[in-house]
Task: structure prediction
Amino acid sequence: MRLFAAPLIVALAPALAACSGPAAPPALPVSPVAPLMLTVVATYPHDRGAFTEGLLLHQGKLYESTGMYGTSSVREVELESGRVLRHAEIENDQFGEGLALVGDRLFQLTYQAEIGWEWDLATFTRKRTFSYRGEGWGLTFDGVNLIQSDGSSRLTFRSPADFAIVKELQILRAGKPQFYINELEWVRGEIWANVWQSDEILRIDPVSGIVTGVVDASQLLLPEEREKTDVLNGIAWDPDRGLFLLTGKYWPKLFAVKITPIHDAVAH
Result:
């Protein structure tokens, strides 16, 4: 049989080629990821005992969700001093995660319990418990839907009414899935996100899911300030000043920063 193998393969080649279907379309060009520059405008104290999971600014006050079993909470914080004005502790067997504001309600996720809570902003009392499948990481609100991360390369858009899934969005960076998306913030029609275990902050197009910009925030803390801290995590938007507020888990400081394209900074 070996004597006839080569002629047989040659004879079949045209037929196999004819059955293989049309050629694959050419690959689409990969969108470039613009490097962005971070400039510190102000520095504020931050509770070193806070394992920051979610952060937002509303009417001049910070609202923060903290994690870790036994120390999770939702809190209102005075920006200038870092002083905790109000807080509600979470059961010791729950791990607090992302936080978002919808009207007069705070939505808070948990890590692996597959439940979340709706808090009354004025009283810090729980109004409702909701459930979902999988892990809870980051959370933000785009004015219509809540947007949730779970550590994967996908974001899930959910209805504030019942936390039902509206749609999912694959996040791509230079044509490849971007994993470990963590804390989220909606800023002027774009999604901004921390990447877990990194000092990067990403700017994401909410329609295409493409990462359009990246910030290196590794310079925020001095080497000696990084001792006994954990990763960068916590993005809030200050619309009055056009600034981002950034901190991290167990960080001693919170930073007000301006983020601009690098070519703009060079030009000025």
Summary: Helices lie at 2-19, 262-267. The first strand starts at residue 34 and ends at 45.
